[in-house]
Amino acid sequence: MIEGRGRTLYGRRRGKKLRAGQEALLDTLLPKLLIEVPSEPQKLDLAALFGGTREVWLEVGFGAGEHLVWQAEQHADVGLIGAEPFINGVAKCLAHIERLGVTNVRLFTDDARLLMAALPDRSLSRAFVLFPDPWPKTRHHKRRFVQRATLDLLARLMKPGAELRLATDDPSYLPWVVEHACVHPAFEWLADRPSDWRNRPADWPPTRYEQKMLAGHKPVFLRLRRR
Ligand SMILES: C[S@@+](CC[C@H](N)C(=O)[O-])C[C@H]1O[C@@H](n2cnc3c(N)ncnc32)[C@H](O)[C@@H]1O
Question: Which pTM does this prediction carry?
Answer without folding.
Answer: 0.95
